[in-house]
Amino acid sequence: MGNVLSGKAPAEGVLQNAKKIAGKMMKKPHLAVVIVGHDPASELYVKKKLEKAESIGVRTTLRRIGENADEKELLDLVSQLNKDQDIDGFIVQSPIPKHMDYTKVVEKIDPKKDVDGWTSTNIGRMFLGISETFMPATPMGIMKLLDYYKVDIAGKDVTVIGRGNVVGKPIAFMMLQRDATVTICHSKTKDLASHTRNADIIIAAAGVPNLLKADMVKEGAYIVDVGTTRVGDKTVGDVDYPNVIKKAHCTPVPGGVGPMTVAMLISNVIEAALRRA
Amino acid sequence: MGNVLSGKAPAEGVLQNAKKIAGKMMKKPHLAVVIVGHDPASELYVKKKLEKAESIGVRTTLRRIGENADEKELLDLVSQLNKDQDIDGFIVQSPIPKHMDYTKVVEKIDPKKDVDGWTSTNIGRMFLGISETFMPATPMGIMKLLDYYKVDIAGKDVTVIGRGNVVGKPIAFMMLQRDATVTICHSKTKDLASHTRNADIIIAAAGVPNLLKADMVKEGAYIVDVGTTRVGDKTVGDVDYPNVIKKAHCTPVPGGVGPMTVAMLISNVIEAALRRA
Q1: For chain A, what percentages of helix, strand and coil (3-state, to nearest 5) are there?
Q2: What is the mean pLDDT, run by run of 10 residues, along chain A of 277 residues?
Q3: What span, in angstroms and rounded, lies between the C-alpha atoms of A217 and A92?
Q4: What is the ipTM, given to two decimal places?
Q5: Do residue B243 and residue B151 come from a single domain?
Q6: Distances from the Cα of A89 to the Cαs of A34, A94, A107, A113, in angstroms?
């Protein structure tokens, strides 16, 4: 039987540390979140981020743009937030309506306020190992979670399933930087099991429910489930959890990576405020 | 017996195409190269780049900084080249003396003139798949070489040995973007052979002579040798070529990736000039 790698305790640790720092600052760190349209999952997720941030001592502002607004309106709001001396960091919650170009919008964010760590400048800095960057919250949260459970990373074989810009690619980098041997699989991989069966650590970020089954993982491996597929009113991961947990250590969904992501975002906001001060 | 994957013919193809475009431009594209100190290998390599560029119809300028100059002198030269309206692109040849910070110097280069593709902005854009970037010359040259020999990449298992910023990390990205399943190995990998034995394509960029031996590669695999270790007055690759070529297709050293790198650099200079026009 594997251990349940809950994100709750490590997230709480990150948040308590953030709270301590925020409490010592003369001006409260200030996070703004932009929502475009009315995606119900986004609404819920943003609400969670804002409530958690406030509870830590971070001021928050929610800015809304209508679903039918044109892209220019959103770009103008980004420029305004870039200039606003009171805002330390902000994010544009994805998804945004299809008639707007998300990459273009993100690229407009001042890298100093890009607390999601998604601008090309911050990604490039991460790649080069330059410290004045913001690391994307989810992959950074995964690293913190594994560190909390004292999982060795150096020299280990890590398989990442998924190659997205938000999780797959950056977590592959971070693992490399920590001396893991990294394999990146995705929908075009011809034999996924051949790449997971011997892995010491698996990061499942494909968004395909039940993709990773017990016969595809090694006894005692560490599995991080980043899948968040909405099935009815439930969020399900990529891992066949009830069977995988019998032989490997695994994060649950929900309650695994999710709380870590929120905690790391808040941590980035405080970092942004500290750098400006 | 495998095929010799010479870089000469594909490099010539890239260069002839570059020459055709350069010949149609009102103003010759202009490349500047900065050398700091007197590293003999660098001198030779830069000489080759400049001669080849001139032969294609690219104007070149060599700027020298003394070995004992301070970093500020180099940074000032970079600023000057950024502003110089006549220069379309430039590179600072590595290595530079140890008392200067190479990353800091590269980060000062205007991304629009960064024809080596090494600034964080251009790397971040590559990561995000934004087209207005310059791809680093060596990994781009590898892709072109494999395309020339009609090597399938989508769905193939590719193992990259080496995780440097110049070859290992960017080639891993480019392979991912072309739908390969990618494994990145390095000096801390516990069992290198287990990651190379089943690979369809291997990119060896470790800088360790004779690292990749025949029993570590699959029959009929494609091997690209990016190693350039100086042994006496010879440059040797990472592959045990005489034995590996008996069962797999392999680039020679020299005459494999080297000519491709020079060709891609020149191609980037022309691209830089076209974008400015």
Answers
A1: 45, 15, 40
A2: 96 97 95 94 92 97 96 98 98 95 96 95 89 92 98 98 95 96 98 98 97 98 95 91 98 96 96 90
A3: 36
A4: 0.92
A5: yes
A6: 11, 16, 14, 4
Say which of B52, B88, B93, B240 is annotated catalytic: B93
Query: Domain residues for A94?
Result: 26-110
Question: Which residues of chain A are within 8 Å of residue B179 when distances are taken between CB atoms?
Answer: 186, 188
Among the listed residues B31, B165, B42, the one whose alpha carbon sits nearest the alpha carbon of residue B96: B42
Using an 8 Å CB-CB cutoff, list residues of chain B that contact chain A.
Answer: 103, 107, 119-125, 127-128, 130, 154-157, 163, 165, 169, 172-173, 176, 179-186, 188-190, 194-195, 198
Contact A155 B107 (CB under 8 A): no
* H or E stretch covering A211: none
- Is B157 marked active-site? no
Match 């394999």 to its residue by tokens.
Answer: A183
Asked if the structure places residue A78 within a domain, the reply is yes
**Residue A34 in domain:** yes
Looking at the fold, whether B209 and B160 belong to one and the same domain comes out as: yes
B163–chain A nearest CA distance, Å? 8
- For residue B89, the domain's CATH number is 3.40.50.10860
Residue of chain B minimizing CA distance to A106: B128
